[in-house]
Amino acid sequence: MKSGSRDIANVVGIQGCDGPDVDILQKVKEWFESEASGRWLLVYDNVDDIDLMYGEAHGRLASYFPRSIHGAIIMTTRNKQVGIKFATAKNLVPLSTLTDAESLALMATKLGDDDSETTNDLKELAEVLGGISLAIIQAISFIEENGSTPARYLELYRANDSNKIELLSEDFEDDTRDLELKNPIASTWMVTFDYMKARQPLAADTLCMMSMFDAQAIPEALISKTAGGDSNSSTSVEKTLGILQAYSLISPRDVTGAGSFIDQIGRLFDLHRLVRLVTRNWLTRCSTYNQWVAKAIDVMSIRYDELGRLKYEASNKVMRTYLPHASSLMSSPPLFLKDDEEVFVPEVFHGQTLQNDHAENGLICPTCTGNILGRMSIRLSLDQALVMVKKAVAICTFSIGANHILTLPHRYQLAIQRDFLGDSDGAEVEFKELRLSYEMTFGPRGRETLEVEMILAETLQDQEKYGEAESLL
């Protein structure tokens, strides 16, 4: 503001602005408020820091905004809270992302190719870039500068997340922007993230937590603990989520008519998929990615455990809402636990021991991971469920042992899944091994042991092994 004010003072010839002790901001303000200025339009661009503008510690820079019937001020900001402070809510002009038609029109001004095949590629490009004009212009610049095509850009972009980040981090020039501005969208957002981390840490932490889940319909229950901070008050949660909404990083979903189950999980929020991608890259750059995976797994496991208090119908709906977020979390690095046939123990668990404070130490908890995999399987097809339970058994067996009290439920679930799929022989083997483990843990006449023996007897009966079944009963 001081630099811009000095430029204005030099251009319009304001006297007495050269001394080192001159308050150049006040001088220029007074000139704009005087009749000498005539009619004027003043633009304040990228005013995002609410503390800098309105905080006492920084001298309330907003107090230097001139007020006059002869002029007008336009302010641009990514922070809605700044905009409301400056102009009140009714005078805001929100700029949303571009529609598909607007995105295509923007691309046409640059590429000018109306070939039907190219148009289809451009539609896909607009969709994957979420209608963000800066990202679209950046993509077009890359295509033009490298003699590429929209189809090739899409191919590169979709290959993997590393490619996405590299493409979104490309410097570019655009004749509609200041010549000095070459910052790509990834860098632009990272500046915002760094600012939040320093000034609004709860908002930054909540954004980090949200990036661990699927970008769509993130339940408040999964982020409220982070958003609330140490106080964990509803007021703190509201303020934190308000900051993220003010920066248009997240948006609330309309849950009208969703049913009473929504009371169990709170509001639903969408995180722009490009914001999610860049946030995850920001965490990788800061070497804190795995710590946030650990925290998200801890929260997800706790929320799943809380479902035992709900009635079946409500629990079922909540589990359906949680599933895409659990799936996204499990398939993320460093776990890579997708719903494919491969069963393995992720390297992150090698050398770990069972602790109660995994998340606090930035360690991914194997038992919480197993818990999530087991819970997910309830909402999957039988084949997918079998794979997920196998992975839960493998991880817990490796980390804490096959006979540990936290591993046994997964082994029990694995035997049940085999039975559901008609694999009676496999179920029999699992139940017999499980019976021995239960006897060691709960004793030969323990309730849990007797339950396993009863199910084993039913499995043997289904195979017409009546004598063996009768001996158990």
Q: Termini distance?
A: 85 Å
What's the total number of strands?
5
What is the general shape? elongated
**Please, what is the average pLDDT?**
85
Order of helices and strands: HHEHEHHHHHHHHEHHEHEHHHHHHHHH
**CA-atom Rg in angstroms:** 29 Å
What does this structure look like?
By secondary structure, the protein is mostly helical. 58% of the residues lie in helices and 4% in strands. The chain has 23 helices and 5 strands. Helix 3 links the parallel strand 1 and strand 2. Helix 5 crosses helix 6, helix 11 packs across helix 15 and helix 16 runs antiparallel to helix 17.
What is the topological layout?
Elements: H1 2-12, H2 24-33, E1 40-44, H3 50-54, E2 71-75, H4 80-87, H5 100-111, H6 116-128, H7 133-145, H8 150-159, H9 161-168, H10 185-199, H11 201-211, E3 218-219, H12 224-228, H13 234-246, E4 250-252, H14 262-265, E5 268-271, H15 273-285, H16 289-305, H17 312-331, H18 366-377, H19 382-400, H20 408-420, H21 424-442, H22 447-462, H23 466-472
Parallel strand pairs: 1-2
Antiparallel strand pairs: 3-5, 4-5
